[in-house]
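Dear support,

Our group has been running a series of protein-ligand predictions, and this particular one with 3-hydroxybenzoic acid is the one our PI (initials K.S.) wants archived with full inputs and outputs. We had some confusion internally about which version of the output was final, so please treat the block below as the authoritative record. The input we submitted was:
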Amino acid sequence: MKFNKLLAILAVTAGLTAGATASAKEMRLGLIVPASHEWSKAAVAMGEELKQKSNGKYSVTIFPSGQLGNEAQMLQQLQTGALDMAFMTAAEITNRVPDYSALFAPYLVKDVKQAGVLLNGPTAQKMLERLPREVGAVGVGYGVASMRLMLNAFPTNAAADLKGRKMRITPFPPVRDFYQLLGAASTPMPLTDVYDSLANGQVDGVDADMELVYRMKFYERGNTLLQSNHMMFPVVGLVSGRLWQTMSPADRDLVAGAARKHLNGLFDKYVQVEQEMEKSVQGTKVKVVKVGPEFFGNTLKQWEDIWLKRTPVLAELRREAAAIK
Ligand code: 3HB
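Confirmed final output from the archive:
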């Protein structure tokens, strides 16, 4: 009798211990950007909130600077379950879901605030719903980086100055076309390699944003900062499809809610930090030249003609964007 009771107690204790271990989940989150980037800070803040709201059931460890590989590799890891979450560029998604390219139409939005409205609008949200089936990861929300601009080692006063120049681009088709139409030599290069190649003259200029120019010190290697704000640069919060399948509806809501909140927080964040960083860059030797769509002349129409055919969803996005106040 006594022995049986002891066995029963042991079984219950073992069950409880196993239950606690199985339900405590340390989520690994990968990013291509360095720890100082706003995307990494948002990921850390999300992790803290998640830990608190789940009473310690969920915690998040971030792996910034491409420590786990490039974004294509991270996407594979999400599919197999080797990685739990990522804050990933929409640029990488275009390689799997070509419609995502439409988000990179030049002058689709005028600033990060409008980007927030458009990305939370019906068309962009519907695109998120395709991710589980088409990339094997669940898209829980959007954020954004600061607006795209160019940091060039050569004086840049007209679009013609870009002709024949080697311009670093994030490796994906819509931006490749944009620079090719401008007569530049598009040079695909992931973020992690950009500073060195600018320093050693492998490229003449870079397609980048204010945060990279300031925080990664690209300004040290530049002559002109062409502040064109020519594209938005969305980031997508992804959760491994494998992990998602094991989660309860309540836990899914918790994780998706925290991720969406901190990614969406980036829209307001950049309204503020973009300005602060611009002021700091203006204090350096780099000449800041502000330009609008007219700078690029006929190139914009050429780009639009090509991409409206490839990604018809662009027409819908343009309509929604035009309605934003
Ligand atoms: C990029 O220029 O490739 C890039 C910029 C970001 C974040 C991620 C990638 O601000």
